Amino acid sequence: MANDDVSEAEPVIGFITIEHVPELGHCGGLLLLNAIGRPIEFHCTAPVPENRAQRILYGRTYQTFLYCDQISLALTAKAKRRADILVTDCVEIIPLGRHSQAPVLCISNPEDQLETIQDPETAGFESGDIRFWSVESDRQQISAAQELCRKFVTSLPLDEPFERIRQAISEARTVAR
Amino acid sequence: MIRFLDELNWQKHIDACPLTPGDGSISTWIPDQNPTSVPVVSAGFKNRRVKIKSFFFEPAFEDATKRESKTAGNDRKEKSQSRPVASTESPDEKPSSSRTRIRPPRDIIKLDDRLFYMLQPPLENLLSGNTLQFPFKPFSFQYGGIGFLFPRHRAILADEMGLGKTMQAITSVRMLLRTGQAKSVLLICPKPLVTNWIREFALWAPEVPVVAISGAQHQRQWHWKENPSPVKIANYELMIRDEPVFNRPDSHFDLVVLDEAQRIKNKNNSTSKVICDIPRSRSWALTGTPIENSLEDLVGICQFVSPGLVHGEMSPRQMKTELKDMILRRTKDLVMKDMPPRLIRDAELALSDNQAESYEKAESAGVLRLNDMGNEMTIKHVFELVLRLKQICNFDPATGESTKVERLKADLDEIAASGQKAIVFSQFVDTIDRISPHIEQHRPLAYHGRIPSKQRDPILDEFKNDPSRTVLLMSYGAGSVGLNLQFCRYVFLFDRWWNPAVEDQAINRAHRIGAAGSVTVTRMMMSGTIEQRIHEVLEAKRELFRAVLSDENQQARRGLTRDEIFGLFKLTTPQGTIRRSSDTKAA
């Protein structure tokens, strides 16, 4: 439905985040937007409960395993349109960049999240007024991503779509109940 | 562990491995095993399948834009570029910090449909692109109103007068047309407001073709049937006449908007019935006064918007619950905190001796006559007496004396001296005619029902632009709705209307967005007369209105306001008690 010829060539920005739902688990949401912020696709997961055995096994990397390997990979695999860039507000999703063709940029407050990032390959960089974090390999594609982000940011702040995702996840859960 | 060794048959391996003297390396103790023979215990950590729900959206706003840009000629491009634009943000501008979301109404059940609205960008962004241009930047509460109307099939926008219901409705219509969700829109308004709507469409949605249905029967018929304009504007009066033309099985409107929807408050009158029968998908009602007299007024409007949802037997609380998702009401006090205040001044005057004599005679004779009528007495007879007494309160029929006019003259002199303008409202055209000679020095203009429609706009233009014209005399009937007179800072209610909503409508001609400063409203009433009794009834009606339409915070405000505390000691200014409008409501 979204794969019409006209819009195929337009840049697509993906926003991916995870919402913790108390007592149920973690819900992931992926929202694909066009360059001016209109929705193209939305995918969300059912709550994924934490697994105690996995938590013991993976230790400190469990959160990354859950957010990135389990939820985010499943979400991106479902998308019909390929995102030119993936933006997240969860540092645990940064390693997704190693598995996806699109660079994964994390918007974050460095002071708050610096300690959380354990990956030595993860590095922060500035683009305009925005501070991003990504894996080193993604930085090779960064210039194109920067341009895309800059265009997007003129109409909407980069953190705005996460608000939509959270509301949509909440709505989907309400309807599911 | 023992069991584990057993499983590996460890002893068997030891027995099979002879100890060779001199070979003390530990390696000789390790059995030479075939790797395949080692049993492996596996714990599978294969990823569980994560359940995913997917939604795909047509980028509707964008596509509509493309369609238009493809079809629009160069002329239109040039026109739109030359138009002054206030809200379009240049690429260098920072995005708007306020975020008004389109929230789906309760009656949208399907998750896909709900998410379609929820996942749209904030309205500020949706409307700030290059494709939707505005002459002025809307207020944030106006975005809220658009976000309310746009997704709804059934809606009542009941904002207080002067908050821009027209602009909110036009922008919502514009968005529906752009997204292809509506192709034919019918807007019904009072006849004097048709030109106002056309003007507002030209201002807020210049690219939308609009046609006013008017003229001879064959012309109107052509407009109804053949005119391709997506927006048709009709007046209430012609709906009955033209019913056979538009109410056909093959005709259908995607949206019908009623302006001043209180016109159909009586669900039994023929206009209401005809309008409720219009084949349509969406029904929106715009009114600043959904309750004028009783809850039945609101039931009448709901009969159009959502038939059967509410009925007259419901309590105000039940009705409020039922309509919660369908009705949006904001007041200036709530949304425009920096708007100039509205000062209500009750001028309680005493009848002159001659007026008092005439009043007493008329009242006693009238009451006697009503008593004599016995069972034949009807509401009409009582009403006639009330009107008679009200007229005497305005002017003594024998001598022409009027305390009100004396007071009005004094006030107008002061207003004119300060370079301001005033509007004087009366129920009676005859009263307007009698006031006029008394205030000749202010070159008053009159605007009422006896003046033909075509002559009315020039009167308003003259009042606005001629500095020597400082007073406009208006009848409630002709001048209480849809007019923008915010350059006036003084309003006089020479006599009182029957319900507070119409009075508020009148006051809000001046007290609305763009008001130059505080608006002083003088409500004239004669002490100890029918006017004072009417005033008490009006206050009771205001209370009913609040019970259904005000929000919880307003209802909870039961404490005494500053002026109420002053009022306990009957402290007044020389001009009478002064109260802020908000306090008046709380009283």
Q: What are the main properties of this structure?
A:
heterodimer, A: 177 residues, alpha/beta, 7-stranded mixed β-sheet, 6 helices, 7 strands, 36% helix, globular, disordered N terminus, B: 587 residues, 7-stranded parallel β-sheet, 27 helices, 13% strand, disordered C terminus
Notes on the protein architecture:
- The complex is a heterodimer of chains A (177) and B (587).
- Helices cover 36% and strands 27% of the residues of chain A.
- Chain A is of the alpha/beta class.
- Mean pLDDT of chain A is 81; it is low at 1-7.
- Chain A has a seven-stranded mixed β-sheet with strand order 3-2-1-4-5-7-6, sandwiched between helices.
- With 587 residues, chain B is of the alpha/beta class.
- In chain B, the strands form two sheets. A seven-stranded parallel β-sheet of chain B has the order 4-5-3-6-7-2-8, with helices on both faces. In chain B, strands 11-12-10-13-14-9-15 form a seven-stranded mixed β-sheet, with helices on both faces.
- In chain B, strand 13 (490-493), helix 23 and strand 14 form a beta-alpha-beta unit.
- The interface between A and B is large, with 42 and 38 residues.
Could you give a short description of this structure?
With 177 residues, chain A is an alpha/beta fold. Chain A has six helices and seven strands; from the N terminus they run αβββααββαββαα.
Name the structural class of chain A: alpha/beta
Strand order of the largest sheet of chain A: 3-2-1-4-5-7-6
Radius of gyration of chain A: 16 Å
Which geometry of chain A do the CA atoms define? globular
Amino- and carboxy-terminal Cα gap of chain A: 27 Å
What topology, given as strand order, has the largest sheet of chain B? 4-5-3-6-7-2-8
